[in-house]
Structure formats: C-alpha cells, structure tokens
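Quick one from the shared queue. A colleague (R.T.) flagged Transporter substrate-binding domain-containing protein as missing a structural entry in our internal table.

Convert sequence to structure tokens.
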Amino acid sequence: MTARHFRAGALVAGAALVLAACGGGGQGGGSTTGGATAGGADLGLVKQGTLTVCSDVPYPPFEVEDSSKPSGYGGFDIDLLQQIADKLGVTLSVQDVSFDALQSGTTLAAGQCDVGASAITITDARKQNLDFTDPYYDSLQSLLVKKDSGISSIKDLAGKKVGVQQGTTGKSYAEKNAPDANIVDYPSDGELWPALQAGQIDAILQDYPVNLEHEKADPSYTVVEQYKTDEQYGFALAKGKNPKLLEAIDTELKTLRDDGTYQKIYDSYFSTAGASS
C-alpha cells in the first residue's frame, strides 16, 4: 500500500500508456471479454461463476464494508472489480484477509482467492511472488497527526511512536526516512486509527487517501505532509497461474476507462480532493 495524493496528469498519462495495448471489452453484465466465456468458465476461477477477491478491510476509501453493495463490500477497488465481474458475467465475492499474507503472495498461492485487491503497490519485490494487472491508481504516502501534537514534518518524529501497517510500503518509507522514530506495526488501518485516537501512537504514516479520510472524519487530526513515492496500485494474482484472468481484467480496466465508468467511480471517491484520473 502507499500514500496518495491525486496527481491528475500523471495518472492519466501513466495509466493510459500502460493500458493502451489492451483490447476493449463488453458493456453489459452478461458480456464476455478477452476470449472469456459467459460465467468465466475458461478463466480458471477458484469457484465457478464467481470472481473471488481477497482484501484487507477496512482501508477506506479503497475497501470498506457496505451492506448496500452486492458483495457486502465497497470502496474504490471493490467498485472497480464489481464492474469487471459484471462484464465477465460472474458474481463478485470478497474475503477479508490480512494484508501481509496478501502482499507476500501466500493467500493467492494457496488458492483462497482469484484476485488480491487492497491498494497493493506494485513493487519489484512483490513481483517475485505475484502477477499484477496494469496499474489503476497512482499514490502518495502521508503523515497524520493530532493538530496539537507539535509534529509538523517527518523530521519531528525522533523518539515518537509512529504507527504503520505491517508489510506495507508506508512502513518501508518510515524505516528509511524516520530512522530515529519508534515504529509500531499494526495489522491494518482498523487498528492504526483507533490507536492514534487513543494516544497510543503519535502519528500514522500510510497512504494519503486513507489518512485524508481520517482527517475529514475528525478535524482535530491533520495530514501534515505528503510524500511522492511514484507508487502505483495493481490488482494481484498468483504468480504464473492465471494469465487468462490477468488479460481479461486488463482488458476490462481499459474498457472502464474508455467508456467513462472508471472516471465516474474515481470522482465519487476522490473529487472532493480535487483529483482527476
């Protein structure tokens, strides 16, 4: 995972470039794409007729529980995959798993799910164990603190307790750029945010959109810095096991961009931050 500001030009140019080679897909829920048959019969799904997605929930605005959605989950990542599942003519099912097991490739290699979707940053290290779709989101890291904390930058973290999510690029960034801080691992944002509110940690270093959600939820907290890390998110698949599904998802990602659906979903989550894809 990574932190995020919304770099309009970079997202458009970078994502359009990497997706340009993919073909278009169908529009309706029962359509087929990328050579896939209705119901995804030839996509090697772990459960016939179902696109099973593993995600670490909650991680707003990318993954949240939402009883109003068909799968019981929503967020930017899940909404994109719901559209892709519809176009492939399959049902979307979401399983809540730990991010560390997901980003390491363990969960996918075990055949627990078809796709990992949890704001996963594409890195060379992760590519050793995972196949990634084309990038679908550009991200930044950020630092969230209580307004009266006296912390105004990463330089003020010496001796402070900085919460990070284990296995993330946010943790790597903190270790490299705040070597004198006391870095505290948490399984997910679901533990990080309450820990900051309870005063158990002094700051959270993680993806910008997630910290921004907390800032909006409680104005006594503020994002004091954002860090450009050139990170991009991709959906993850088990290494070398399902090239047909990988191709089908890439094809539909391009279709969603071309027909305006991606932009509509993007704006529903990020437009208030002045973002544009």
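Confidence is low (pLDDT under 50) at residues 1-35, 272-277.
The CA atoms of residues 101 and 107 lie 6 Å apart.
Added to the table.
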